[in-house]
Amino acid sequence: MEAPQKLYLLDYGAGNVRSLVNAVEKLGHTITHIDTVEDFARADKIIFPGVGAFGYAMQALRNKGFAEPLRAYIASGRPLMGICVGMQVLFEGSNESPDEPGLGVFEGRVERIDSSTKTVPHMGWNAAHVVGAHTTQGPDVGGDRRYYFVHSYAVPYTACGRQQEFVHTATRYGDEVVVSSVWHKNVFATQFHPEKSGTAGLSALQSFIERDLVRSSDLAEISAPATIEAALTKRVIACLDVRANDQGDLVVTKGDQYDVRESSEAGGDVRNLGKPVDLAKRYFEEGA
Length: 288
Known about the structure:
single chain; three-stranded mixed β-sheet
């Protein structure tokens, strides 16, 4: 009888990993936390989620003595899946923490998304466009599915340099196109959060856990950034605080400990932030 796969979770202390554990368990698998350096040798596969700052993640890995064992694990050819900051630290560095080097598995740096032309962070459901055709079966991502993103920093997708060796999907956010997943040899990593992406995310996780995702060759050609289409799903504001003012008009208001009136010095009227229909229309048109 074949021994069960030893799936491990690399948590450097950023927290917020419960949703990932729940997703893995929903797929019928168990996952063990890496507590010591020796656990890297025991693992058949590792999932490496990350939240927060690039510099904190790298410092935490080094402080725990995990940075070099992680590099050795990757070099051994065993599968690794990175998520969000867990993908970013695989690159050479980040403008978020300029003096903190990354693991250097992939060429390139993480840069801040331009906030002068759009809202930052990039938050919401967006597509991940596969940038080239593979001869081997790859991770189960792409198509018309949407994935949950929440990040202010990303690796720009340029289709230049060595990106054809490792970029798997790219995503457009406004006037920028970023790398949304990488796949090279035994490493698969996503900028989006599969554990928070519903059935689409579960499929991506399942493909990593249950298949051997080994990319054995580079792509001869990958999509130009200009061909990556916008696909950010509109977000809906679920609740506006609407009530009638003293004149009987419906208005959107905002209360302070249930008090929705202005101070007596300001007239004591119900705070009026605007008409509900007008505000809803504005929010929708602005992509809220």
